[in-house]
Amino acid sequence: MALIFATGNRHKFKEASELASKYGLELEMRDVNYEEIQADELEEIARHGAEKACALLGRPCFVEDAGLFVRALSDFPGPYSSYVFRTIGNEGLLKLMVGVSDRRAEFRSVVAYCEPSSGPMSFEGKVQGSVALEARGSRGFGFDPIFTPRGASGRTFAEMAIDEKNKFSHRAKSIEGLLKWYLRKSGGRLEK
Amino acid sequence: MALIFATGNRHKFKEASELASKYGLELEMRDVNYEEIQADELEEIARHGAEKACALLGRPCFVEDAGLFVRALSDFPGPYSSYVFRTIGNEGLLKLMVGVSDRRAEFRSVVAYCEPSSGPMSFEGKVQGSVALEARGSRGFGFDPIFTPRGASGRTFAEMAIDEKNKFSHRAKSIEGLLKWYLRKSGGRLEK
Predict the structure, then answer these.
(1) CATH class held by domain A3-185
(2) Could you tell me the pTM of the whole model?
């Protein structure tokens, strides 16, 4: 039986599916409109979301919440990255960085898995990098065109194919944390 | 018995108390750490918050949620105004408005009241105005120093005493909506 990823974001689902297939696991996308809370910590948002999504579906599932934390902006846009992207976008974030020399930023992702019979488990992934000087690339989504992970020779996430992005990405790390745990839990039955 | 305003914001409480006293009502501040959801509409956030706060207190109470909606920024920072203020602040918002000629903005407030035995009632207040060219004034809180209500001769909320701010403010309107309804509901027993 496929593992349910409760999300409405096809990009996230594709990134996660590509990883899961390497572990011999199949994911199923379910666009559940679960309630999200406001909090400064992604973990709190994701764990709460997983419980809500699981209650709505009545089946084990996981959710993922991610954000871009820019050091010089006191971690803005952080947990509200999706809203900030929908409103001021990459252009707005670049404008806020005009004249700012410290361009360090971190993408964080938290995956939370929940079963109807037990509380949520969560897994975090981070990637350090910097805010690019201008938007570059057309792949990925959100702030991908303005984020350069450390060690990627100045390329942005939006200039990478999923496979390459997954070598660096915060989401790849959190999803892999979940997948490894899930396979151990299932006694490796689903492993290739 | 005083009407409970579930908030940790002393500025909001002071504004509301000053209004309530004109209606012969007394407010009590309770800093309840109730859960807030993420939503694009303040009303949804406030109604949900009132239910949570009421459940925690086991007594009738109201909450208030407010935001600054800047037209040229697709309504940013909107429902996440508090977080945006804590991170990029007035300085960040002014930076986003550099070179933007349409400076129209609206402050919105929604008050939601809830009783243990019944669902929430909500009241909205709005004030139109514009984003000032620079921060002015030291009263109030949040984005008050950069918001000029229409009809205030260019003065910002932070340049006004509470009494004057309450003549214009979104929060005064939503709170008055609640107070009038509350007094009607109580049969005017508490009216002066």
Answers:
(1) alpha beta
(2) 0.93
